[in-house]
Amino acid sequence: MAVQLNTLLREAYEDICPMPPVAGAVSAARLRARVVLADWNVSPEIVEDALLVVSELLTNAIVHALPPAVLRLVWVRCDGLGTLRVEVSDAGPALAAGHSRPGIDPDEHGRGEGIVHAVADSHGIHIHGAGVTRWAELVAA
What we know:
Blueprint: E1 10-19, H1 25-39, H2 44-64, E2 69-78, E3 81-90, H3 112-119, E4 122-128, E5 131-140
Antiparallel strand pairs: 1-2, 2-3, 3-5, 4-5
Helix pairs in contact: 1-2, 2-3
């Protein structure tokens, strides 16, 4: 009697990086993410979208939330299918709902969430005791 075993080949990687609320933080995060994703051999088909998601989620945290902002990247590859999860956690909103920081032009802000929704395969928000985590997942064959 022969028995066939289902074996899954699985790789998983994680990178966590606190981001200071300073000018240039988003640019630095994109650069770091590009290097990390290249080291992990993340599928090129999702890298540019992933960098866009990093930019949008991190900008949202730096502009609208209390520090610290923390970027977390997780790449899981299982039997040829790869999923990249991008998370940005912060300490929660800096201002009450409906208010915005002085000097923020509404014509130049407010599209980030729509961009993330358009490029991610799934996305969401997790509210927890330490603040808020916004996440998005991109799937590659």
